[in-house]
């Protein structure tokens, strides 16, 4: 049921209660930071809307009529409820501003976001962050549905209903076990790589989508695995080659458990993006995190 026009605006009631409490229109005007004429005009408009005389005005001052006293009594309860509502909404806004829900593709979540979140905590110590890690398609779903305030994806493109900004770059690398036949090669042609069954991420992975676009086509994978760690272990165990983020294999390459092989004829550098719902630009902690990611 819609509110009556008589009570849709509580400001005149607030002024009337102040007149009753403080004893004059002049004091009420000072308390509200407006002119006495403005107070008088708003209360006259209220009287006209209600069809009641609320104040008796005389050279000696202003006092409530019996009807005015009853209206003030009821208005106090309404104003108390309005103040409680305002305080509750303000508390919700403050709580929301101190929370940040982030969804990120696996590479970003495991190898970049931890440092970014440490920096965010230094800038905004009171911010509580919830991080979920999915493949790129699932991150897009989280952002689209509002389950995440900000997403980080590694796919080649964003859907039309999301906006985004490049925040980092990453290079995919071909890795093999030290005893794999490709381990001693100077390079592998892109066409050869595309026709070779690989240890790969599951469909929907940004890495897989990017590689398919970079090579034009991919052979059916020898294994499909849901995590970068599983892929690295499978490659080291001899399951076959894989193409994954250079960030993800730096430690294994340094330790000698995996070998990188250059790829000839394909550009494997990709852009990592922050993503959000179109028309809802990041603000508060989300904006700070995005700036941190871009700086680093």
Automatic annotation (TrEMBL):
Residues 16-65 form the HTH lysR-type domain. PANTHER family: HTH-TYPE TRANSCRIPTIONAL REGULATOR, HTH-TYPE TRANSCRIPTIONAL REGULATOR CYSL. It comes from the Bacteria. This is DNA-binding transcriptional LysR family regulator. One of its GO terms (molecular function) is DNA-binding transcription factor activity. Belongs to the LysR transcriptional regulatory family. It comes from Pseudonocardia alni (Amycolata alni). InterPro entries: LysR_HTH_N (IPR000847), LysR_subst-bd (IPR005119), WH-like_DNA-bd_sf (IPR036388), WH_DNA-bd_sf (IPR036390). Keywords: DNA-binding, Transcription, Transcription regulation.
